[in-house]
Amino acid sequence: MAAMVLMLPGVNYAASWQAAVALPMTVEHDSNPRLDADSDEGVTRTTIAPDYNLTGTLGLDEVQLGIGMHLERSSNQAVSLNREDPELRLGWQRESEAGGFGLTAKYDESSTLFSTLEETGVVANDGTRKQYALSGNWREAISERSTLASDVQYRRIDYDDQALTSYDDLSTSFSWDYGVSENVEPFARLALSHYMPEGDAEAASSTSYSPSMGVRLRLSEQLEGTLRAGVNRISGGQSRASWQGGVELLYTGERFAASLDVGRSTVASGEGGFAEVNQLSSTWRYAIDETSSAGIDASWQDNEGQTPNTMRQFAVWASRQLSPFWVTRLSVAYKQRQQEGRPDASANILGMTLIYSHPDF
User: Fold this and answer.
1) Where residue 56 sits, what CATH number does that domain have?
2) Which of 126, 158, 243, 325 gets the most CB atoms within 10 Å of its CB?
3) pTM for this entry
């Protein structure tokens, strides 16, 4: 931690800076990274992903700068390419007793082979997705119990794969929270998103409107939950309406933690337009002792885009802290993708990760 004092007439401001670093290193074998029934070629990948984050605090203001790189080497570049994907983050936030506001800018690159599969189950070649994002947030307490908040984000998504559609996405949301008690907090939210495909793409511009209501509950010292329900209406090239909502539960015990998330949402898709996603995900984590833990992650995702499909994932992992800064992790995962009219595709993934991290470098 480094501190610097800036002198202004009659006022002293102490600016503090904190740097954090992380260096995960992974070797994994994936039996079918494309999740394609017609091609089940496996690949072994070696990945190093250094990340540096610098946080500065000056009075009510906090500034963050993050730089990362995803370096990957593949045993079979016909299936999975070698990669050097950068990430840059820059943010400013001002907090006060009544609320706060801030701005965030981000640029990152990622593999289309994995990003489109994870988001909407779309099978794509291993190309590059570039994301440019600029967002702002505002929050204000209008009474002791009530808070208004809003955020806005502009994203530009570029694909180098001609089978995918590059697009711009402008979204905003407005929310109102009311604390009935420490354990019950109802809320209302309105979200809007405008999708604009690049150039003369076949997909047409569309706008998504999603009003919803819900309540956050603290059921006990260990158990918290959120219930939400609403509707989604899409106008323009994809005119339709459907329900939205879900349930989230989080349990945190002394040695055991678990989460459950069930819901339906609407997201922008690389295939063009919006896709409706029904999903269920759950995690379990158990602390074996002070340095060792194990867990299970499971998910089911039904994607209703231009290529409807269903994704299932199941993973078991174990980790051990070797020192205050070093952690090792072993994981085994199974993935399956189903699409009407095509054979099911599946993959087995075995990975070993060594992570160095220092929160105050």
Assistant:
1) 2.40.160
2) 126
3) 0.88
